[in-house]
Each structure stands twice: as structure tokens, then as C-alpha cells.
Amino acid sequence: MKFLSTTTIILFFILISSSLFVVKGQVDCVTQSNDASCVNYVYPLANITADINSLCVSMPYMPVCSIQQSCNQVSSTNGICDPFSILGDSCLHDMPGMSGCNNFKKLCASGSVVKQCSTVDSITNLPTTMQMWANIQSICTEMSMAGCEKCTKLNATCDVLPVYSTLCLAMPEMSQCANWTKMCQSTGNVLSSPISSGICTDTPTPATNCFSDPSDPKCTDYIYTSANSNTDISTLCKSMPYMTACSIQKSCSDASSTNGICAPFSILGDSCLHDMPGMSGCSNFKKLCASGSVVEQCSTVDSITNLPTTMQLFAGIKSICTEMAMDGCEKCSGNSPTTTCDVLPVYSALCMSMPDMSQCANWTKMCSSSGQLYDSQITSDYCVASTQDAVPIMRMYFHTGILDYILFKSWVPRTDRQFAGSWFAIFFFAIFFELEKTLRSILEKRWAPKKKDSDDDNLINSSLLKGSYPKFSYRDIIRGSLHAIELTCSYALMLVAMTFNVALFFAVIAGVLVGNILFGRYRNYTPRVTCCE
Ligand SMILES: *[C@@H]1O[C@H](CO)[C@@H](O)[C@H](O)[C@H]1NC(C)=O
Ligand SMILES: *[C@@H]1O[C@H](CO)[C@@H](O)[C@H](O)[C@H]1NC(C)=O
Ligand SMILES: *[C@@H]1O[C@H](CO)[C@@H](O)[C@H](O)[C@H]1NC(C)=O
Ligand SMILES: *[C@@H]1O[C@H](CO)[C@@H](O)[C@H](O)[C@H]1NC(C)=O
Ligand SMILES: *[C@@H]1O[C@H](CO)[C@@H](O)[C@H](O)[C@H]1NC(C)=O
């Protein structure tokens, strides 16, 4: 009996404790996260996924959505790619106020004993959506770069984390990239993660110690290959297609030249020595050619002397185009350069047609006859207008030169020979003009009524005019025609003079002078009075 009661008591205790355990097991750890029994509670994966989806449906541009995607792509579910950590990226710092974070916040509220909350491995120093958006806007107003086009508005097209990373990978030294630098520092958890590529890393560095120690005497003969240079130039031009180096590369490949300033390493130098050394495409160049470098390629790099920077060129274009609308200005209408605005060709074209503008001082320097650009195979793109394509411009002041429209769109002398031909055409035309004037005055003289003709049958008496005048005759048609021809000639000559081209102006004057000397005196002709007239 005693044994029975003991067993009963034990059984009773087992029952009580197990029922207690059951009650404990039903504690909702999401709402009572401080309950001791919730230590090992694991928030179900399905609910995490549902929460992330809910966040990403309402704000698809949030970093959490890009991170989830990147993690899916590399099939990783550990560390920062653990779904609960991904949810934490949003709910710990970024947008804790969103409904998708309700469960996470309750589960991991202060006092929570849930282990999962203390092991969450969210990205350290991940900037918030709004910080990244602000930085993107700031970068993109400063200069347009590849990626900016996605973020004209904060909507689904603009995934802030990849876009911000792309911009900062291209220009890591921009002040707006301070937060990116912090996120991607070597002590952070992104750089070593499988999703680092595209967020924190980009161009691989060729395996040689000449990049870490370019002063090593063994590096004297190290050659950074053309292929490597071209890869770097592509990297640069992918993010800023309007950069000077990209235009130069294009001109060089059009001219099939790979020497001197057209050598890929020199083109890279155009960008990395003066223009945009902060861009990631320049990181290898900068390492290799750092101060103290013994690499011979660096001391012989033939980058263009006095090449203005991309931003100086754009400022020059803006200044010229505000002063006067010219062909080419329409390509650079924005407040920052865009893909249509290749600054170097546009600026050069403007300065080739108006070389005397003050904004072209830097062009004059770049294209000075002692510079390499002037002597190169690509000079016709930037320094010397090929006369075949140059467009004459209207200059309302006396000027020399041969490039002017003469009366017709297609009459543009482009060679000295053509100009000489035009000059003589105008000269003889002016002589013809004088001849025609003389002819008309001779005819007028001959047609003038003689004194004794006052009772001529051909005269009409008019009481109104108090005199007589000739009847209508074929002479009136000839006189009118001659006068029309004379007026046409004189207007045409006037328009030629109005090209303000000094040589053409004097072609008109010389023609009139010679014509007048030759024919002027005939205007004083007196018709011979014959006995019978
Ligand atoms: C998880 O999701 C399921 C299905 O939607 C739901 O029934 C359950 O209550 C959720 N669990 C928590 C802890 O929110
Ligand atoms: C986002 O905004 C831009 C600019 O207004 C627009 O071109 C783009 O189509 C929008 N994207 C989406 C997914 O709505
Ligand atoms: C970087 O992030 C901090 C907060 O983490 C913020 O206060 C700061 O404005 C950010 N810096 C820039 C340049 O946006
Ligand atoms: C020419 O280049 C210099 C620097 O080399 C720059 O300071 C200046 O503003 C440029 N001039 C013009 C007119 O763009
Ligand atoms: C015109 O008037 C003059 C005299 O004034 C006269 O001799 C002449 O015959 C007139 N001619 C005609 C056509 O009427």
C-alpha cells in the first residue's frame, strides 16, 4: 500500500511537471520573449521569409531585398546570409518601424532571452536606405556615373545598396562614400562574405608584388599589359563614358593607332595621372606608379600634356554654350555630363570653330604645336578641323580665313585654291556689274528724247504733269529688266561683302574699281546727232 502511494506521488509529480512543461511549451515566444523557456526558440524560416517579402513588397529598394537576392544567387544561408540575419539588417537599424519587423522586434525586444537574437549576424555599419539614397543623390548631382540612371527616383528600379556600391566602387575616394568605406573595411563582415563581389570588391589585381612594392628593383621591367590597361579603361568608361580617356581611346582605335599617346597605358595615364585618379579603374595604375616606383613603364608613360580634366572641359562647354548657342551644345544640355556628352570632342569642336573664345585657352594650350596631341594621328579629332567637315560660322566682324558661306549653303571654299576661284568669280562679277550699269546708262542716253522731239508723235501731253512723256514701248521692258539685273547684282555683291571676310570684301571693291576704270567713262557717252534723226 505504501509502495503504491509512493508510486502515485511520483506519478503525480511527473504528471504535474509534464503538464507544466506542456503549458510552458505553449508560451508564445514572439510576444513573451523574456520567458525563460524561450531560450532555444527558433523563429520559423517560413515566417522569416514572409516578413522579408512583406518588407520588400512595400519598399523593394531596401538593402535587405538586395542582400537576400545576392545570398540566393550564391546559395548561401550562413553568416550574413542567414535569413534571420538578413531580416535583422532591416529591423535592427534600417526600417524597424515597418510591419514586416513587428515579430522580429517583439522577439528580440530588450529583455529577450531568445538565443537567436544574440547570434544574429547582420551587416556591421550597413548604412540605412535613406542614408544611401541621400549619398546616391549627392554623388549623382555632382557627376553622372553609370548607375545614376537607375536612381532618378527612389522606386523599385533603384536598389540603393547595389547602386551605392557601384558608384563607390568606381570612385572610392568620394566623400559620400565614407559610409561605404566603413561598411567594406577589412574588419567588417561583408568583405569576407560570399556576397562581397559587387558590393565591396570589383577589379582583381594581377598577381605580382610589383603592385604592393613597386620600388622592388625586380619590377623595373614589369609591363602592365595592354589587355590589363584596356580592362581598366573599360572599367573607367563603364561608369563614366564621357571621360576624356574614353574619347581618346575611341579616336585611337578609329585611327588604328597604339603608339605614343595612343598606347593603352598612356590612355590610362590620361585618366589616372590628372583626371580621375580616385576611380577604381585607376587603382592598379596608381599602385604600380606610386611614388618610389621603379617600373620603367611609369616614367615613360606618354599621357597628353595639358589635357584638361573632364570637369574642366564640361565647365568650359557650359560657359561657351551659355554665351552663344553653337552646334554641339545640344549634346551637353544637362547640369552634369551624360552619355551623349563626350566632353573632349564637344569642347574641341566648339573651340575649333571659335578658337579665340576665352574659354578655349585650355584648348589652345592642349593643342599647341609643341604638344603631342597636335602631332598625333588623332589631331584631326581635337586640334585641326579637317576642312572637309568644318562648319563655317557667322562672324559679324571683319575676319580673315577662307571658311565662309558665300551666298549659298553649298558654296563654301575649303581649300586655298577653291577660295582663290571664289575670289576671282566675285571680282569678275563686280566688273560685270559695272559693265551692266554702263550699258544701261548708254541706252538711257540714246533713248532720251531729243529737244526737237518735243512735238514727237511718241510723246503724250499731260496737263496733270504739266509736260509730256514718252508712250509705252519695248524700251520700257528692256529698261526694267536691266534695272532688275542691276539691283540683283548689287544686292548679291552687298551680301558677299557682308560675310565680313576681308578678302571677299576686297574682291567686291577691286571688281568695282577695275570695272569702273574700264567702263565708267562710257557713261558720259553722247549719242551722235545725225542729220536725219
Ligand atoms: C508563422 O506563420 C504561420 C503561417 O502564416 C502562422 O500561422 C504562425 O502564427 C506564424 N508564427 C509566428 C510565430 O508568427
Ligand atoms: C522608377 O522611376 C523612374 C523615373 O521616374 C521610372 O523611369 C521607372 O520606370 C520607375 N520604375 C518602376 C519600377 O516604377
Ligand atoms: C554615414 O552614416 C552615419 C550614420 O551611420 C550618418 O550620420 C552620416 O551622415 C553618414 N555619412 C554620410 C557621408 O552620409
Ligand atoms: C584651364 O585649366 C586650368 C587648370 O589647368 C583651370 O583652372 C581653368 O579654369 C581652365 N580654364 C578654363 C577657361 O576652363
Ligand atoms: C502737245 O502739245 C504741243 C504744244 O504744247 C503740241 O505742239 C503737240 O502737238 C501736242 N502733242 C500731242 C500728241 O497732242
UniProtKB/TrEMBL annotation:
The keyword Signal applies. The lineage of its organism: Eukaryota, Amoebozoa, Evosea, Eumycetozoa, Dictyostelia. GO terms for cellular component: membrane. Keywords: Membrane, Signal, Transmembrane, Transmembrane helix. GO terms for molecular function: copper ion transmembrane transporter activity. Its main location: membrane. Residues 1-25 form the signal peptide. The chain crosses the membrane at residues 491-519. InterPro entries: Cop_transporter. It is found in: Membrane. It comes from Dictyostelium firmibasis. This is Copper transporter.
